[in-house]
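Predict the 3D structure for this chain.
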Amino acid sequence: MDYLEFLKTKIEIAPESGFAVDPGAVNKALKPHQRDAVVWALKGGRRALFESFGLGKTVQEIEFCHLAADKQGGRALIVLPLGVKQEFTRDAVELLGYEKPEYCRTMEEVYASDSEIVLTNYERVRDGDIRPDYFAATSLDEASVLRSFGSKTYQTFLDKFKGVPYKLVATATPSPNRYKELIHYAGYLEVMDTGQALTRFFQRDSTKANHLTLYPNMEDEFWLWVSSWALFITKPSDLDPGYSDDGYDLPPLEVRWHEIPVHYGDATEKDGQMTLFTDAAAGLKQAAEVKRNSIDVRVEKMKEIVEDSPGDHFVLWHDQEAERHAIKKALPETVDIYGSQDYDTREKRVIDFSEGRIRLFATKKSLSGSGCNFQKHCHREIFLGIDYEFNDFIQAVHRCYRFLQEAPVIIDIIYMENERQIKETLLRKWKDHNHMVEKMIEIVKKYGLSSAGKEQGLKRKMGVKAVRIEGNHYTAVHDDCVEEVRRMESNSIGLIHTSIPFGNHYEYSANYNDFGHNQNTERFFEQMDYLTPELLRVLEPGRVAAIHVKDRVLFGNATGTGMPTIEPFHALCIEHYMKHGFQYFGMITVVTDVVRENNQTYRLGWTEQCKDGSKMGVGCPEYVLLFRKLPSDRSNAYADDPVKKSKEEYTRAQWQIDAHGYWRSSGDRLVSKEELKEISVDNLQAVYRQYSREHVYSYEEHVALAEALDENGKLPATFMVVAPGSWNDLEVWDDINRMRTLNTTQSRRRQHMHVCPLQLDIVERIINRYSNEGDRVLDPFGGLMTVPMTAVKMNRYGYGIELNEDYFRDGVGYLKEAEDERDTPTLFDFM
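Done. Predicted structure below.
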């Protein structure tokens, strides 16, 4: 296929694996918006319904399961929280006219039952009693239980439901606090691998593992992709302006925040120091301490609120058992439920409260926050405390605040003065949730339920209008590098130096031309197959392509191995470039900081090493792979235009120092091991590297020194200060300044940060070793134009190509600065 055809294959919308249903075949009891949702979900086969509370997800789930089971000639399973099975039973029989769904605890009960639809609880599936693969169709009611990626429930469900032909998830609050959690549903529905989706749409924090945020320039594409497998609606008219919204108006909502002041001076730190108060936002331990020490004052406030409205029914939300006991003591008429209670007792009490036979109901969000409908007899809720779990909070709010609620809803939230930061976080997440819903509704209204419209929207991300900016000593091009290199003259580049995208590890733009925008490593190299032959063509005979790469950490939760493994990306690159005619002739190893790497990946942790050292690898260095285009004359293999250095200008002494990579300043002296302990952490890295190079290495001595530093509080957890130095700097470079990149300037300028910058030290050495002054130095993945900018400063001609508009704009600025510095005459030039 040609290049454009290849790019078109990247367009990702959720595949349709279901069947078309005549809307007239859907149960007539369903309202128009419910019917449309069921038809859409069945055509997709594996879909999600994210509908506001009260829009009728129950009947949609039942109808989806009924029609899918009938089509497959099998049975269906609906998994639901405790306390809501009676609603499914009632709707199936009284509203839809179907046989009563049977509630089953084990597969033996399933086999003994002959009902088409089986009901069960999440616990029954998670703990192994129910086998989802037996069923032709499944639905997860209140599927937000899957929101915690890596949790036992999510991992178990991911495996147990794999391959089920028809899968539906239904919830009103799809993980609003972090957009990336939406893709956990995509993983469950087998729409896209979770690890792939994380890489596709989210940028990682280089200082902290698992801290990912949605690329700003990927937001539209992300929501288009989500809308291809998930349906968001808040009212019927969201689907069709002609649908009536009668009965779907939410009542007024009043949220009352009750801040209780703290008593200052009571808190004590572990070292005995007094503090004004314990900060609940400092960590889980501190938050629990605040909760534990404030139960009485919070319950007293709750009692006051309840007694002020003697005619109202209340849900009393709490988190700790101690809080439940305190509530019962202060308000004896309260009926409560708790985790160790018999399931049937819990269910009866939930039903009694929902039907108005109980006035005060104490429960936890984890028990009654999902699935329960309390709006018929209750419009008051009190939260005895707050935490960061917004999903649980908003679910609990909507037990009463939902359609068919006839009274204004009042939510009382009690919190301590030192929990203000938690309150602010909850309010921010609430705002994020509203934004997410608005964004999805906007897409539904714009494109409807058809995938064709969404695919057309995604296609608009392909291609770029080329921009070329030329200076006296550089050329910068905003375009796809494949297209630009194809236009370049053969044998016109003296050196190619670049840091290629690391497979599908990062995406640098929202464009389908982006090399990082590929499903996997194999697809990445398919796109590279269009570029690499062109790079060989434009390189002068005998000259070098220096390719910066790094092996990739593959996480166990994505590979299924349960442990981090390494993809040998540098080896795959060697194979790729050799396949296209480049001659491989060496590799430079650049040592990285293992402590920083662990903060990024959590795969080399000290704690895990102590638990089981057999799963522990080592840090991943970076590599500069050296390739050469064969010269015309292979008798001596000199380049057609050799890279020459004068021995007068490039002396043996300079060569030795450059090869070793360590330059001493005049007046310095060697330092002893004892003196190392007294060196400040700021200087310790450089001093120890010098010490390590100039002494016979002892592993035992190295460990002893690190332990002594740790005892003195000089062994940071964020970077490595006693990394071993290298004696062979031709092969291993251990003194690269990892903070000296254009990102340092970018950070000061508050510009968009490049996600994987190339260090200036590496660029300077490569250009010096493998090019002559006046040569054209090309970087096809220019980024912030580090390579061409350095080339300009070193009296070469810089040539950079970049697809990302922000990087290109900033990179051109750096190039202009470098050129102005080079061309501006000094006073001595006039003398």
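Residues 267-278, 660-676, 736-740, 746-755 have pLDDT under 50 and may be disordered.
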